[in-house]
Amino acid sequence: MCLAIPACIVERLEGEEAMIDAGGVRKRISIALVPEAAVGDYAIVHAGYAISLLDAGEAEKTLALFAAVEGAGA
Amino acid sequence: MRYVDEFRDGTLARGIADRVAHEVRPDRSYRFMEFCGGHTHAIARYGVVDLLPAQVRMIHGPGCPVCVLPVGRIDNAIALALQHRVTLCTYADTLRVPASGKTSLLRAKAAGADVRMVYAASDALRIAREHPQREVVFFAIGFETTTPATALVLLEAERAGLGNFSVFCNHVLTPAAIAAILEAPRGAAAPALDGFVGPAHVSCVIGSAPYEPFAAKYAKPVVIAGFEPLDVMQAVRMLVRQVNEGRHEVENEYTRAVTRGGNARAIAAMAETFEPRPTFEWRGLGEVAGSALRIRDRFRRFDAEARYGIVYRPVPEPKGCECGAILRGAKSPSDCRLFGTVCTPENPVGSCMVSSEGSCAAWYGYGRFRDAARTA
Amino acid sequence: MNAREKAYVRPVDFRDGRVDMSHGAGGRAMAQLVDELFLAALDNPWLRKLNDQACFAPPAGRLVITTDSHVVTPLVFAGGDIGSLSVHGTINDVAMAGARPLYLTAGFILEEGFPLGELRRIVESMAAASREAGVPVVAGDTKVVEKGKGDGVFITTTGVGVVPDGVEISAERARPGDAVLVSGTLGDHGVAILSKRANLDFETPIRSDTAALHGLVAAMVEAAPAIRCLRDPTRGGLAATLNEFAQASGAGFRIRERALPIKPEVHAACEFLGLDPLNVANEGKLVAVCAPDDAAKLLAAMRAHPLGRDAALIGEVVEDPQRFVQMETRLGGWRIVDWLTGEQLPRIC
């Protein structure tokens, strides 16, 4: 459940709102739950609300784990 | 799309698949439940099972808020729209869910009810502001992912002193439901599960910590995973390792969006506006203690249940429907004699067929060719 | 104009005027609207006669006739409007038989109160589409319904065309081994429309692909006269069209997700709304099935046409008594591509 997608904050707007861009699609959403969001950050957006910020460094680490032939935890 | 496409890469998928195949023990099977419909959908839509070794079996859990919403609550929502003549705002997901007497919100709308689809909870508030002469009710459904938005809307309604707005709260809680699956129903054997793929976006909000007591108590590994297919495959790999090593920890594959503590602001907003219900009925699982939220007394005037004196009347599950057993992993969709005959996505009988994320709907819409291949 | 008496004191007020019941009542107001709007925009020798029908000599070959009602919200969208859509949609339905479209008729149902200026823009867009396609609107009708009983404008168009001898295009002709092609990117129209729906309101550079495909079809028929099936994947998208082919032919279909042309922005919008691009409507694309030996030349002919630049070979017809449409996902697994369930609505879960 809980459809949510990562989207880039491209502009902060008044009233704890922001314009986001996801793959060329733009929409006005609420950032009331992640008020620290800055332009350029990626957020996880669900039903018009950003529910968390995406950690780009962690995303890179996860992708590196996918590619690792011998897993680190073995 | 950044942070989406990379997590659907076919080459990486083959790499992970090879590792999983290498790490599973040939002498045992692995039964993992993905709790969330989001995972069920990803597995079905990308054909993830084709890349997993035969020893790994994925069991689709009840994590779809539309599927688990009991029919009686839809009946309540329809009564609000038809009898109380309110403007009922709802996410599109609930519109087609069958209610008692062959009705649904979509059919109530056709019969003249003022039912409006909203994309965000704040849209319902806006509609209330734009139509001060109308009583506007937001039919709120969803897990912890969706609940914070409803909390913010309640706080805003209070701040603005909106007199024509209320919320019909049906928010449910994930950890309680996972525990309920492992608590075998009276007389039934405990479900044979070796671990859980834990929620993605629910965990963005509540964090990974709430699963820790549960992993310890039931000695089941949990790996929180994103909703992309590579996330699911990597989570399976991590679960296989935990099982092989005899561990039962909460691990986090979705570190790019989930922390141990979750979103403090969202948690605070929910705590301010909601409190646990003693019990709540889940379709397929029955009554589950402490598994849902209700609106706190402070916001009573925005609580549609109080405002309209809503009385919940349970509706028995349809005869022959195997959703309960399917949700616990005891049966597969194709074991149900209603599946694909009287129960289809156009005409869902049981909860698992109601939304595309339900296990039966996903099997029907994406995977049923495998049944044909098996019998051929 | 013919000899109809010009007794209108003032011209139709396209700036501030609105449709009222008199515009459909058969009196002078209606005649004036026909003259100053429909005739002025769609002008051709058949309409000019002001008869209740158009007469023409039957051409050689087999006649094709089709009809299509157009209702769309919003009426005007990026890349088109209900006027151009009503011309393209019916031309395409004629063309999918391999036919050359000859004539159109148009029936308008107008809602009382609809601004005449907007109506004029729609009719002029319809006229432009008809001229560009070279298919005249030779007869028409206008009715007005009371306010609240319509949705601005509904347009029904009927098309007549002719199929050259030797061309036999029909859904049941697909057979195992055949190649499956699409003429371009999928889902553009549906996304352009959804982006402007109330409550969804997102911004996207995507424009509707609405276009008349008879030129492309003519080029395809010339390159490969033995094309077996053609259909434009409108409502229900590619998924619906392939399932229709499978049902009609008794065969299964296998496509490859990696081969599907989908614009990144359409992909993104679908992710946003929880939709499958394979279920999303197109108004300027076609799906073709041909014998494997014809596939290369057909694809080349499609790509050589401006409306087929992004054409792609996406899969093949297989033997399957269950008539499943299956897709190899980009992950390397398999799934069914099923009909759309219910109405296409955005999901949050």
Task: Outline the secondary-structure elements.
The complex is a heterotrimer of chains A (74), B (376) and C (349).
Chain A lengths: L4 E9 L3 E6 L2 E6 L11 E5 L2 E5 L2 H12 L7
Antiparallel strand pairs in A: 1-2, 1-4, 2-3, 4-5
Chain B lengths: L9 H14 L6 E7 H10 L9 E8 L1 H4 L2 H12 L4 E5 L13 H6 L3 E5 L2 H10 L5 E7 L4 H14 L4 E7 L2 H9 L12 E4 L2 H6 L5 H7 L3 E3 L4 H17 L4 E3 L11 H10 E3 L2 E4 L3 E4 L3 E3 L8 H4 L15 H5 L31 H9 L1 H7 L1
Parallel strand pairs in B: 1-2, 1-7, 3-4, 3-5, 5-6, 7-8, 8-9
Antiparallel strand pairs in B: 10-13, 11-12
Helix pairs in contact in B: 1-11, 2-15, 7-12
Chain C lengths: L27 H15 L2 H4 L13 E9 L5 E2 L2 E2 H14 L4 E12 L4 H18 L3 E9 L7 E11 L15 E4 L5 H7 L19 H10 L5 E3 L5 H13 L2 E5 L7 H10 L13 E4 L4 H9 L8 E7 L6 E4 L5 E3 L13
Helix pairs in contact in C: 1-4, 3-4, 6-9
Description:
The complex is a heterotrimer of chains A (74), B (376) and C (349). Chain A has 74 residues and is α+β, with helices and mostly antiparallel strands. Chain A has a single domain (5-67), classed as SH3 type barrels (Roll). Chain A has one helix spanning 56-67; strands at residues 5-13, 17-22, 25-30, 42-46, 49-53. Helix content of chain A is 16%, strand content 42%. Chain B is an alpha/beta fold and 376 residues long. Helix content of chain B is 38%, strand content 17%. In chain B, strand 3 (87-91), helix 5 (105-110) and strand 4 (114-118) form a beta-alpha-beta unit. The longest helix of chain B is centred in the middle third of the chain and has 17 residues, at 229-245. With 349 residues, chain C is of the alpha+beta class. Chain C has helices at 28-42, 45-48, 82-95, 116-133, 188-194, 214-223, 237-249, 264-273, 295-303, and strands at 62-70, 76-77, 80-81, 100-111, 137-145, 153-163, 179-182, 229-231, 252-256, 287-290, 312-318, 325-328, 334-336. Chain C has a 7-stranded mixed sheet. Chain C has a 4-stranded mixed sheet with strand order 1-6-4-5. In chain C, helix 1 (28-42) runs parallel beside helix 4 (116-133) and helix 6 (214-223) runs antiparallel to helix 9 (295-303). Chain C is globular and about 70 Å long. Chain C starts with 27 loop residues before the first helix and ends in a 13-residue tail after the last strand. Classes of the chains: A alpha+beta (74), B alpha/beta (376), C alpha+beta (349). The interface between B and C is large, with 48 and 29 residues.
